[in-house]
Amino acid sequence: MRSKGKQVQEIYKDDEFESLLDDAEKNAANYWEETFVSDLKSKFEQFGRSMYLSESQQDHLEGIAGDDKS
Fold it and tell me: What is the span of the domain harbouring residue 10?
């Protein structure tokens, strides 16, 4: 069975995720990145910090935001 990821509240503290989304929105370089960030923002508005985020989504988002931890 595939893991559905972790909840935003398990990964990020306080408003870190919202800041990350804002940075990613500003840095999105193409249509795919803009759509990806927009979709995540919509899901976050719907589910809040209980929203699930896969490791792949987290990696992509942090890369777009320029907050790559590698």
Answer: 6-65
In this structure, what DSSP letter does residue 7 have?
E
Whether residue 1 is contained in a domain is answered as no
Average pLDDT by stretches of 10, the chain with 70 residues: 81 96 97 98 97 96 79
Q: Are 63 and 70 in contact (CB under 8 A)?
A: no
Residues paired with residue 53 on neighbouring β-strands, in sequence order: 6
Bridge partner residues of 7 (DSSP): 52
Alpha helices, DSSP H, located in the chain = 8-11, 16-27, 31-47, 55-65
Q: What is the pLDDT of residue 4?
A: 76
Distance CA 45, CA 25 (A): 15
Residue 21 lies in a domain: yes
Within-domain flag for 13: yes
In a domain, 70, yes or no: no
